[in-house]
Design goal:
- By secondary structure, the chain is mainly alpha-helical.
- It has 23 helices and five strands.
């Protein structure tokens, strides 16, 4: 037998505070990144630079915040979400603050682009994965609310940046943004570590991977069958009188986070009796989880005198014996923090119902199966070990993943171009500047709506996330190519709305598509490598588009390039399902 620490999401409670904190971090990071186009023309005028060289300032910011993602994941695993977020806020604020003294765009490449970009990566990654760490049943909803901060931030930051620049200049506007970024350090304090539960498991990895109904732990199995336990139940709903009806569904308040009543454990040494009304008398419960090193405790204080404790045991029909408090007192009470990168599903932002691993077993069994702790001699998880798992290059031998990476690379090359040039093109075409500035805001608000709608659609049974993504990118690419036909206000705002909806699908469905095509066990590795490819693409896309403007004197070719790249990326993905099926047949030949 072996033991492992398993993080059981509370599915509420402090998790909603995490959602609010993540919302604010997304609001700041994406809002500032997508509103850089407001600064571009003023920097060009101040330094007498070209479109291409100036666009590189903003591209480095967006590129490095993606490139830093895998490294930040390893850093967060080692030192926690709080430390990473606070460090990122300080670094980002420093980069923006010293940009006030810039004497050239080269200076801004370093201060604004690289330092600011790495700082943003340190804020963004913890904000995204912390939500998934705290939610199970409501993960899709919680993540959807959190990432809506991106669209709301874009909606508000574009006009705010314009107002600051027009009244105090672009340098002061950067100082104000530096102050806003620094607030993320305070918000980062809300990322409270999640304490894991120590459970016993069979050491046979094959049994852990192929756990069937006969291998589900007795306590969770009995709870599901006899007590009609839903996955979302928790200690919070236990009545104050300490009595639970065996006949009512509210007895299902015993959940994956808690132990079942001791009399549900066969041959257990402790029993609780029913009263005449058919109620089970339950002693005062303390939901605080504790563990004894070497032993295994799921929850403490099952009795008023704290004399008994239960362990959760996976892969066995028999629950382990109850340990007394005197046994536990002789062992260390230090509680390790749950490590996010030890979970296979940490990057998954969709509905858990899409995962066969989740729907085919109990909640506790699922969490144990997707958690792979570091060895006991390295319980805190090393930076090098986590990084090596993220950058496992064997995935590059998969034709499916290679095509997905190339497609994502092309998408990101065209992704930031409209944000960078749309407002300036509208002004050049004669649109009122006070109206042109809200084009980016329109992208932001429709992006918010699109993420919510896309999340709902992807949760529906039978919906193919790849097909939805391909259709959205196809529409977005075609719309971008033809967006310069007319400079009419209604036409330009319509294009902005269509583009916002299209990129919302792309941003929302990345992790879901990776799981559908490559499997949950490869999600962390695939997502990390994909961020690297997309970060490089984001760094070079807008400058290349800017060079087209410098050569032709018109912004239209920049949108031809952007739309063409996005459309091509969509077309490349249409045969991806067939390629995946072919690859699966080759690797798993029928005997």
């Amino acid at each position: 037998m072996g033991t492992k620490y398993v993080a059981i999401p509370p599915d509420g409670g402090w998790g909603w505070v995490i959602v609010a904190a993540s919302f604010f971090c997304n609001f700041v990071v994406d809002g500032i990144i997508f509103s850089f186009g407001m600064f571009k023309s003023y920097i060009i005028e101040d330094f007498g630079e070209t479109e291409a060289r100036t666009a590189l300032v903003g591209s480095l910011l967006s590129g490095f915040y993606l490139i830093a993602g895998p490294f930040v994941s390893a850093l967060s695993n080692k030192y926690g979400f709080r430390t990473a977020t606070i460090l990122g806020a300080v670094l980002g604020a420093l980069g923006f603050g010293i940009s006030y003294f810039a004497g050239s765009v080269v200076y801004l490449y370093l201060s604004f682009g690289i330092v600011g970009g790495v700082g943003f990566g340190l804020i963004y990654v913890p904000a995204v994965i912390a939500v998934g760490f705290y939610f199970e049943r409501w993960r899709a909803l919680a993540t959807g609310i959190a990432v809506c901060g991106s669209g709301i931030g874009t909606f508000l930051m574009a006009p705010l940046s314009t107002y600051l620049i027009e009244n105090w200049g672009w340098r002061v506007a950067l100082l104000v943004q530096a102050g806003i970024i620094l607030i993320c350090a305070v918000v980062g304090l809300l990322f409270r570590p999640l304490e894991p539960t120590l459970v016993e498991t069979d050491e046979d990895e094959d049994e852990k991977k192929e756990m069937n109904d006969n291998q589900i732990p007795l306590m969770t199995k009995r709870m599901s069958k006899d007590l009609e336990m839903p996955r979302s139940a928790s200690f919070a709903s236990i009545p104050e009188n300490g009595r639970l009806s065996l006949k009512e569904k509210r007895l299902s308040t015993y959940s994956q986070q808690s132990c079942p009543p001791p009399d549900t454990i066969k041959n257990g040494p402790t029993a609780l009796n029913h009263d005449d009304d058919g109620y089970l008398a339950v002693p005062d419960l303390n939901p605080v989880e504790e563990e004894c090193n070497g032993g295994a405790i799921l929850h403490k204080d099952l009795s008023r005198n704290n004399s008994t404790t239960l362990i959760a045991k996976m892969g066995s029909r028999r629950a382990s014996r109850i340990r007394t408090s005197s046994e536990c007192s002789n062992q260390s009470s230090k509680k390790p923090e749950a490590k996010p990168m030890q979970r296979e599903d940490i990057y998954f932002t969709g509905s858990m119902q899409r995962l066969p691993q989740y729907t085919s077993r109990t909640s506790l069994a699922y969490h144990a199966s997707v958690t792979h702790p570091a060895p006991t001699e390295n319980v805190d998880g090393s930076f090098e070990e986590t990084s090596s798992s993220i950058f496992d290059m064997t995935l590059l031998t998969s034709p499916t993943f290679i095509l997905l990476c190339v497609s994502g690379f092309l998408t990101m090359m065209g992704f930031f171009v409209p944000f960078m040039f749309l407002t300036d093109r509208a002004k050049d075409g004669g649109m009122d500047p006070s109206l042109a500035v809200f084009l980016i805001s329109s992208i932001g608000i429709t992006n918010t709506i699109g993420r919510i709608v896309c999340g709902l659609i992807s949760s529906m049974p039978g919906i193919n996330a790849l097909v939805v993504n391909n259709i959205a990118l196809t529409i977005g690419g075609i719309a971008t190519i033809f967006s310069g036909i007319s400079n009419d206000v209604v036409f330009q705002y319509s294009y902005a709305c269509v583009f916002g909806l299209a990129i919302a699908c792309f941003a929302s469905l990345r992790s879901i598509i990776l799981v559908d095509l490559l499997g949950l066990e490869k999600l962390t590795n695939a997502f990390g490598l994909l961020l690297l490819f997309q970060g490089i693409a984001a760094s070079i896309g807008a400058p290349i588009a800017g060079a087209f403007k410098d050569m032709t004197g018109s912004y239209d070719p920049t949108f031809y390039l952007s739309g063409g790249l996005i459309l091509l990326s969509a077309i490349m993905c249409y045969p991806l399902n067939r390629l995946h099926a072919w690859e699966h047949r080759v690797k798993s030949p029928v005997p």
